[in-house]
């Protein structure tokens, strides 16, 4: 059974109906969406235009994850999915490194307080 987008503003580079069948689907941490797409998804139109694809976001019940559906020609949707997954992984790793640095700084502060 095909999943069709609920969006009405389908970009002109997406061919109807063939590009709306069988989207590429992946999940991303909801917290990373702002880093990927900007506040309130402000960068989505630009990323869609550059990738020649169309995105639809669906928050899953857990709300910790959001499902990203990528519509377009076979090549464009695969490339867009790969690009977004790579960007999400890079954001996640940067966030993880930031947390490790924060933990290290907190430990250093705790050690410093012991000597006062």
From TrEMBL:
Q: Which family does it belong to?
A: Belongs to the KHDC1 family.
Key words, A-Z? Cytoplasm, Developmental protein, RNA-binding
Where is this protein chiefly located? cytoplasm
| PANTHER family xrefs | DEVELOPMENT PLURPOTENCY-ASSOCIATED PROTEIN 1/5 FAMILY MEMBER, DEVELOPMENTAL PLURIPOTENCY-ASSOCIATED 5 PROTEIN
Q: Which GO terms describe its cellular component?
A: cytoplasm
Q: Does the keyword Kinase apply?
A: no
From the Swiss-Prot or TrEMBL record, give the protein name. Embryonal stem cell-specific gene 1 protein
GO BP terms: regulation of gene expression
Q: What compartments host this protein?
A: Cytoplasm
Q: Which domain of life is it from?
A: Eukaryota
Q: Main role?
A: Involved in the maintenance of embryonic stem (ES) cell pluripotency. Dispensable for self-renewal of pluripotent ES cells and establishment of germ cells. Associates with specific target mRNAs.
Instruction: Provide a Gene Ontology MF annotation, just one.
Output: mRNA binding
Please list the residue ranges annotated as the KH-like RNA-binding domain: 11-95
Per the record, the coiled-coil ranges are none
Record Gene3D superfamilies: K Homology domain, type 1
